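Record pair follows.
FIRST:
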Amino acid sequence: MKKISKILAFPLVIATMFACSPMENPDLIQIEETDIDGGSLYLNEGTINARLSSGGIAPILWTSGPGGNASCADTGFEFDESTIRNDFNKGKFEAEWPDGFTIEVVNGKYVNWSFDGSSGQCLEAVAFIVKGGPASHIYIYDGGETSDEGLVSPLVGKKKKENADLSNLTICYSLTSCTVDSD
């Protein structure tokens, strides 16, 4: 009887092993290849290394350069202005942001941003370089967007992949004159 139980248990164990194979991460999406030199949207087998921002922007994974730090030139766009690489330590940025920009970091990982063009200046284009771990994510906005949420640094870890804590943030931007409605 014990022999029969072992024989019947073996197929059950095999079936359970295959049924419990790792599921695909629902945060990872399929996306077309990018042509930015040194950057990639792919992590493994055509899977992107981050969730889309709340506004639907797919980040570019940047692993080149010193420590995975990207520069504004690495975005593939020519921006008129940029901030320094602003380090994030103990829940605070080391430097102030340019007039009009508001930056909020949630749980040490997620970046929310907004731009107030009340000074007669509007965003023509902006990119955020979100650095954490050995790489960066580059989020590019070229349609006059003035806010977004949920920008995040790349995934790290071998077994349990999680987004790295924010190390630093760079803003690359171009402004244009605009009229501001005064309600």
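SECOND:
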Amino acid sequence: MTEPISGTGDDAITKVREDMRVVDQTGTELGRVELVKMGDADAVTTAGQQGEHPEGGLVGVLGRLIGGGEPDVPEPLAARLLRKGFVKVDSKGVLDRDIYVAADQIARVSGDDVHLNVSQQALIDEHAGT
């Protein structure tokens, strides 16, 4: 029998895995984990963190589709997420934008659930500010 995954506080993000269910502080299900990126305390900008691909054209589009350019939010939000670490949540609903959860917004991980210490309104949505 495997031991259930659990974690709280600063180490909670280390317990997060793809496809876990994410719920906000009110218990509302927000979606499923799509990507986990550990923090880099030295990341003051997104330089060197993006996937290498041209900004435009088919190659750029394909590069972004296979994971380059995360988090897909403008500076300084991107730098903050890269510094702290983040989880990208595939939001429920076909038309919903994905959202980003900073590592310090994770209250605990219990079983297959990621519990947040904030409401959905406090989270950064994909393409924020665009």
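COMMENT: The first strand starts at residue 6 and ends at 8.
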